Amino acid sequence: MIEARTSALGPSDRPALQELLGERVRFDEPLAPYTSWKIGGPADAFAQIETSAELGDVLRLVFKRKLPWFVLGSGSNLLVGDGGIRGIVVRLAGEFAAIDVTRTERAVTVRAGASALMPLVVAQAASQGAVGVGSLAGIPGSAGGALRMNAGTDREFGEFVREVWVQTPAKPDAHPVSPEYFYRHTTLARDAVVAWVTLDFERGEAAAVREEMQQRLVRRKRTQPLQLPNAGSCFRNPPGDKAGRLIEAAGAKGWREGDAEVSDLHANFIVNHGAATASDVARLLARVRREVAERFGVELELEVHFVGVFV
Ligand SMILES: Cc1cc2nc3c(=O)[nH]c(=O)nc-3n(C[C@H](O)[C@H](O)[C@H](O)COP(=O)(O)OP(=O)(O)OC[C@H]3O[C@@H](n4cnc5c(N)ncnc54)[C@H](O)[C@@H]3O)c2cc1C
Known about the structure:
Layout: H1 13-21, E1 25-30, E2 42-49, H2 52-65, E3 69-72, E4 78-80, E5 85-92, E6 99-103, E7 107-113, H3 118-127, H4 143-149, E8 161-167, E9 175-177, E10 181-182, E11 185-186, E12 193-202, H5 206-223, H6 243-249, E13 256-257, E14 260-262, E15 270-272, H7 278-296, E16 305-307
Parallel strand pairs: 2-5, 3-5, 4-16
Antiparallel strand pairs: 1-2, 6-7, 7-12, 8-9, 8-12, 10-11, 13-14, 14-15
Helix pairs in contact: 1-2
The chain binds flavin-adenine dinucleotide.
Flavin-adenine dinucleotide is lined by residues 36, 71-78, 92, 114, 139-142, 144-146, 148-149, 151-153, 193-194, 224, 226, 230-232, 305.
């Protein structure tokens, strides 16, 4: 049972948001539908933002009033607590979903808004022969989330980035930054909202690039439990090893807490059989981590981000 919660918004914050966003701000909005795990309690305010100017206005408001806020992408790497998220959850849409692909004889350039869906970005880039984009095939989520996470497989998003434009509460107009990229994280400031990115690829044979993309998608279907809600790999791979291999070797496949289960197909995935809560998943992750540490002396680090109130 979720206890009564206190909103982080004061009585004048709601009308101020409504004035900026009209019907595109909703209050006490459940977040489960916006995450790939289909888990998560309500946001005090859920703000769908469609232009850079609107984002600037909302960031000015949170700066002035010192309101807590969080930017949600496609929710494919998030465990949102059952108590939800206090403050404003920002979700980009509208002009932020734009994808523009251009090519020269030797190069393919993609300009993607932060809410552009990566499967569309990848498909459009592949159709122009963007060499290397196959490494990003099958990764769900948005371009902004991919940048924040430096998402990838054998090659990573950051390898292809030429330009990143962000907006922050202290500097709410779009401006360029140059983060560094590491395995599943970057030096992008915590309070920076990615507005758009430009990616550069070498140009090759489109048919070959598409073929590689297809092969990788087929392999994912075979090796990942894509029929049930999940958030991809829960733990980062430790240096020189695979988290999935360690979890499987620890005998954790099939372990269950409530409706959350360590996938039989891929041990680093936790699937939601329908009614799993964030607490179920958190308990299961803790159990898995403990077992791997006890058996192999390896402390697994989370790849999924925990956000909000865990009850
Ligand atoms: C089936 C499946 C397969 C997956 N396979 C892979 C894989 O092969 N490789 C891999 O790396 N990942 C993989 N993932 C994980 C996930 O898809 C990536 O981490 C993805 O990049 C997250 O993007 P998102 O838009 O869903 O971000 P979210 O989950 O919404 O957010 C993740 C983080 O990014 C931040 N963020 C989101 N948008 C912005 C923005 N505009 N500006 C600033 N910060 C932002 C959020 O605040 C949060 O901290 C997989 C997930 C699933 C469900």
